[in-house]
Amino acid sequence: MKRNKTKLNKTKLNKPNSINKILLSLTIAGLVSACTLVPYSSSSSTSKMASSKTDEMLFTNSLQSPQRSTTDKAKDEGRKPQQVMQFFGIEKGMTVLEIVSTGGYYTEVLSHRVGDKGKVIAHNNKFILEVFEGRFSKEFEQRTANNRLANVEHYVKEFGQFDIKEQADVATIVLNYHDLYSNITKDERMNLLSQIKRALKPGGKIGIIDMEANSGEHQPKLHRVYHQRVLGELVEAGFVFEAQADFLKNSDDDHSKIVFDPSIRGKADRFVLRFKKPMV
Nearest 5°: phi and psi at 113? Predict the structure, then answer.
């Protein structure tokens, strides 16, 4: 009887040892598995960074393309298109809604930026196409003639008549919000912003650039608007403010001159804002 009891006790004592061995084996297997995943993730991240650098280099080269006009290239120094694209988060393959494209300087920049798999929805309205004896219309037609910018759609619609829903990754309003502030009512601006918001995918961005005015002021005769007025309206329309950039600031501009004055034309003090459409 004693001998059997001893054997039984030994059996009981051996069970935890067996369990410990099993647990140790599973732990080692898990660590080995985890270690094998790390290099894959690191490699994927490195590959993505390399691809992004390549895209930036290709875009830089496209800005110097002989197909771009010398007039456009001359504007690049003051407008800094590559920094604008980076700040707005515009990448290859995206769809961009450009509000008030006028003659299409930024339309062409955007076309190069998003590439063959991307799309630019370049908006203009009747007023823009007819003002100055049709100057902007002629410029845009010349720029896009013979399918030169194949990924560009000229979207001719009046404010408040947009019919796009969750198609755009990014929307832009460049150097034109001050005119919206001057020429249409707040209700009309809110309606326009609502339609832009509807056109964006959840989480989509809207980028705005305009000429700065003195604190609190709106200066329609100078073609300027104070950035806080714009920021406030975008937030009121349901956008989330993300960031403000200063690469287009000019501290030598005291905001007292019309932006077409030869002393500051093309280099007026400008604000750059980025907002996001909420995911829900």
Answer: -65, -45
